[in-house]
User: Fold this.
Amino acid sequence: MQAQQEIQQLKAELSKSHEAEVEALVSHLRLHPENEDQEEAEYIANARTGVFHRADCQYVAKMNPDNEIEYDSRDDAIDDGYRPCKKCRP
Assistant:
């Protein structure tokens, strides 16, 4: 019976900690409303490698932000000489 009480207590503490995280994020968005209106580019090219990716590709997260070039269309990236990523296949 004591184990059940401990589990319930841990669950309550865990939900409180997540509640605090959510409140912090909401507060951040209220302080920075410009984040709401920003539209994310559909494709991200890497100036160093010559490859472009879908915005949600795992390699975009690893990319140096200084090398990122945003494109709204696949054709624009190809016209500028970038080749599609072989992993995300944009």
